[in-house]
Amino acid sequence: NNIRYIGANPNNYVYFNCSDYSNQSDSTCEKWRIIGVFKNMIKEDGTQEDLVKIIRNESIGTYSWDTSDTTDNTGAGYGDWTNSDILKLLNAGYETEKVNGSLYYNSKKGTCYSGRENATKSCDFTSTGLKNDLTRNAIENVIWRLGGSSTDKEVITETFYKNERGTMVYSGHATTWKGKVGLMYPSDYGYATSGGTTSNRQSCLAKELYNWDESDVVDCKNNNYLYNGNYQWTLTPITLKAHYILHAYPSGGVCTTITYREDDTRPVLYLKSNITISTGDGSNSSPYQLSV
User: Fold this and answer.
1) Among 251, 195, 254, which Cα is nearest to 219's?
2) Are 192 and 205 in contact (CB under 8 A)?
3) What is the 8-class DSSP label of residue 136?
4) pTM greater than the 0.85 cutoff
5) What is the pLDDT of residues 74-117, one digit of tens each?
6) 143-188 pLDDT, tens per residue?
7) Helices first, then strands: H and E counts in the chain
8) What percent of the chain shows pLDDT beyond 70?
9) Beta bridge partners of 179
């Protein structure tokens, strides 16, 4: 019973991460997209609420999901979100890390992971990171489910949704995480389609996400606001190997890849329930404005 926006360009734009919430505009705020309203989300204190989930409209850049030195899993990294490099980039608490160390969360610049065997590159989030405490304090701390899938090739959106909330992970990897900033799930990507004339929404949801690149289902990706034509990280692992993770790829499908790749990174979070809309209609020209 979650409520989701669907289609190529629905009116789900919202201003967020603003430098000035009293004067919200394209020059003071970023545009994010509302994925939907998610029922009975478990918060840090154990209580449950229906929460609004949003995703940054544009990527903050391409970064490795995880990597490691050459003596640790041959430098390939691991698909365990709770210890991943990308988590340490997006969230607070890792400021002492020499690489990635909460740089996005604190709008800092430094060094980020960018390839196998702990390869790095310079990165700068002084303009694209979380701008202030008003923004940081608007994010709810929730339980994120980290269940994975044993395969990517025979899985439809509904099955991904169930697997994401399950306990199937690579041996020793965590099944849940409590925190603020994550990534989209494969099911978020799949459910965002409205379909079209040649393949309607029902047909898209019955089609394996792996095969969304086929010519007879182009409406599935083309009428999906989360599709951006690039490689995009998701939160969800494949359990066959320690360093397997799922990503959306440019031709439209979702498939397995390796964690040390550099893919588009689009932060995802849940807003606190006391935040309300003050104005706007959700269109690209008039995004919702939040009372933060």
Assistant:
1) 195
2) no
3) H
4) yes
5) 999 999 999 999 999 999 999 999 999 999 999 999 999 999 99
6) 999 999 999 999 999 999 999 999 999 999 999 999 999 999 999 9
7) 6, 16
8) 100
9) 142
Dihedral pair phi/psi, residue 86, rounded to 5°: -70, -35
Q: Which residues of 165-280 form beta strands (DSSP E)?
A: 176-179, 232-237, 244-248, 254-258, 262-264, 268-270, 276-279
Residue 193 has φ and ψ, to the nearest 5°, of -80, 145
Taken in order 206, 212, 218, 219, the sign of the CA dihedral is positive
- Predicted confidence at residue 42, as pLDDT, reads 98
The span from the CA of 255 to the CA of 247, in Å, is 6
